Amino acid sequence: MKQAGVKIEGVIYSLDGNLGHDEFLDEFLQFIENKGWHFGGGSHQVDEEGQEIKDINS
């Protein structure tokens, strides 16, 4: 049986200032794992114009 999933494309910004890549990934992966789900893919930090930048937490 083939497995169906959800593909996510977009950008997430915080209403409370900057959102660090590491902070987001920690929360996102905790959410995914708590549901018993798996995530495969990539991510990177972006500015307000969507341009890739170095992680602000690094």
Characteristics:
1 helix, mainly alpha, 58 residues
Kindly describe this structure.
With 58 residues, the protein is an all-alpha fold. The protein has one domain (16-58). It contains one helix and no strands. It has one helix at residues 21-34. The mean pLDDT is 91.
- Rough shape? globular
Poorly predicted regions are none
- Give the helix level as a range of percent: 10-25%
The average pLDDT value, as a whole number, equals 91
Secondary structure class reads mainly alpha
Number of DSSP helices?
Answer: 1
Q: What Rg, in angstroms, do the CA atoms define?
A: 13 Å
The total tally of domains equals 1
> What is the beta-strand fraction?
under 5%
Order of helices and strands: H
Quantity of strands, as a count? 0
Major β-sheet annotation:
none
Could you give the distance between the termini?
42 Å
